[in-house]
Amino acid sequence: MSNLKETILIVEDDLQIRNFIVYSLKNEGYNTKIATTGTQAMNILVTETVDMVILDLGLPDIDGLDVLQRLREWSEIPVIIVSARDQDKEKAFALDMGADDYLTKPFSSTELLARIRVAIRHMNRRENLKKQSVMQVKGLKIDLEKRLVYLDDQEVHMTPMEYTLLSLLMKNRGKVVTTAAIIKELWGPGYGQDTQALRTLMAGLRRKVEKTPAKPQYIMTEIGVGYRMTED
Asked: With 80 as the cut, is the pLDDT of residue 156 above it?
């Protein structure tokens, strides 16, 4: 992305909420485009330049999740879900489908703008990571080319599954990776939703990289959703 302010597509059919979002974004210098239906949103996404999407789920024609699914077939631009659906299951499902963040209505402009800044940072970081073979958070370093892990400059021996889990979290650091997404990555789509193996694997990984596994400084648990590698 350029140094100029990003262009954000707002997909929201509620006039009051839409005006609130537009006003908040324009006050910060962002460019905005508006869609009130999923069909209109898809037309904009395939014909115009957009850097980010703020997407409501309850659209009048098609569900916002369908818009997200279609978009993820060809684009990785950040998508922030805004919805009145506040169940952990709904949030996890949206994140599994490729959303970058999930904001429950009602929300403040301060929170919205903070989430936008985080999503932009993540997008820029993902673009940079594609060019990197070594990633580091604090004293934890992973060399993707050599498949080696170091903690405070000391090599940490890991099983293949532990390494895969750690590299997945590191590549997505700062972002919640859902339990379902991790299970699919590690054991394949046919494994099911049994989380016991993942909990056991995570416990073993934390014993190797966390000084105090019960109070982790690297791998955080997002209760009911998944795990997140800290950024700092």
From this structure: yes
